[in-house]
Amino acid sequence: MSQRTKIKALLESGKTDIDVTVKGWVRTFRNNQFIALNDGSTNSNLQIVVDFENTDPALLKRITTGAAISATGRLVASLGKGQSVDVKATHIEILGDSDPEKYPLQPKKHSLEFLREIAHLRFRTNTFGAIFRVRNTLSYAIHTFFQERGFVYLHTPVITQSDAEGAGEAFHVTNFDLANVPRTDTGEVDYKQDFFGKSTNLTVSGQLEGELGAMALSDIYTFGPTFRAENSNTTRHLAEFWMIEPEMAFYDLKDNADLAEDLLKYVIRYALDKNKADIEFLTQRLIDEEKQKPQQDRSELNLLEKLQFCLDNEFKRLTYTEAIDILKESTPNKKKKFQYLIEGWGTDLQSEHERYLVEKHFKKPVILTDYPKEIKSFYMRQNDDGKTVAAMDILFPGIGEIVGGSQREERLDKLEQRMDEIGIPKDELWWYLDTRRFGGCPHAGFGLGFERLVLFVTGMGNIRDVIPFPRFPKNAEF
Ligand code: 4AD
Ligand code: MG
């Protein structure tokens, strides 16, 4: 294969009057002369100028939207508007034809809903090219952040016996013949005969295993897929999503919140540095989209400003109890505009309440702490008031909850007592309890929903558009 230069490198090199070979996919072909070529390295297309008078008409016909081509020629300063350089082609080769009658992506604006149905091709649009380059950068930035701080990347199992969140939303894993499930004498499913000899599921969180790692390695993080069989058809939920879960020995809740705030700011800054052009493109995309809305429904800050604002301001920290007081007195609560009215202490916050706090009241990211123990998981450290636990949720504008975490209950008696109260079988979690028996120590951690982070940084409105192939109820296409 001939040496090929990626378009991004070529545009950044600032060179002209050199011979180059570029390869990519045709976005458009105008006047039998101008090819807009994109190879995914950048949103910018490279213009290839074809000497059509000296090119075989049969070849010209095969330069169609979607076709893969190789073009060799001279890189020259462009005469046209909108680009700095062109390639004056001396040789064009079609590497893969694309029938223009059948190719679903036309050079026009398609709706995001339509593109979701052709997710195998949507990478080839400007919007999805930008989203997936930003996603890639964020993923790299997360590793960089933790690696720079001496955290150990720990691979927790995907198949597990535990339902870490105790929410009963796990997908079962079995290799039983479902038409012939073995039963015990008493008629229950006989998991002893199943592949693992017990009932197993896809992990909902790597936290419990992560805690085991932290009890030896001090600071660990996981970054992997997690699965939830919750039937939520929302723009914020997926059945398969990626989560980052750091777990730190000798951290309390404040250390935990500090780390989460640092992480979020670090990765957003990283993406702004590395993917400026993509984020600028996504910012303009949103501005154009909002032009169709009435003035009062448009965002006060554009995407770039919103990201910068998030970097420049400290997140607001307050307790659940303080938040409830604010919500109780809020206009939408008094005017009964909330779907779920806040009547008293103890109820879980709905996304409308979270968004009110972040978008209307504080107008910045919020870290809410010390929730009622009844609405949080068994492993959270119990506060001295006997009512709350050392939990924290981080709420982001336009997103709601982006991080959930806590200080962990390291006191064996308190942990066992809580498990008994909620009905979590202690024998199944013997290994988890062992860490409290042998050198247990104060520790804390959190989970950052990766797609919610990508949603925030790209300004997209639906979580199904920031993961290549989304899984949600009644959909596992591709
Ligand atoms: O709040 P969650 O359920 O917390 C845990 O799983 C803890 N074990 C984390 C920990 O302390 N190590 O989930 C953590 C984050 C949420 O804040 C949200 O960003 C994301 O994961 N998340 C989802 N993202 C997409 N689709 C879903 N169905 C999600 N459920 C949670
Ligand atoms: Mg949560």
UniProtKB/TrEMBL annotation:
InterPro entries: Aa-tRNA-synt_II, aa-tRNA-synth_II, aa-tRNA-synth_II/BPL/LPL, Asn-tRNA-ligase, Asp/Asn-tRNA-synth_IIb, NA-bd_OB-fold, NA-bd_OB_tRNA. Its EC number is 6.1.1.22. One of its GO terms (biological process) is asparaginyl-tRNA aminoacylation. Keywords: Aminoacyl-tRNA synthetase, ATP-binding, Cytoplasm, Ligase, Nucleotide-binding, Protein biosynthesis. The keyword Ubl conjugation does not apply. PROSITE patterns: AA_TRNA_LIGASE_II. Pfam families: tRNA-synt_2 (PF00152), tRNA_anti-codon (PF01336). It is found in: Cytoplasm. It is an enzyme of class 6 (ligase). It catalyses: tRNA(Asn) + L-asparagine + ATP = L-asparaginyl-tRNA(Asn) + AMP + diphosphate + H(+). Belongs to the class-II aminoacyl-tRNA synthetase family. Homodimer. This is Asparagine--tRNA ligase. The lineage of its organism: Bacteria, Pseudomonadati, Bacteroidota, Sphingobacteriia, Sphingobacteriales. The gene is asnS.
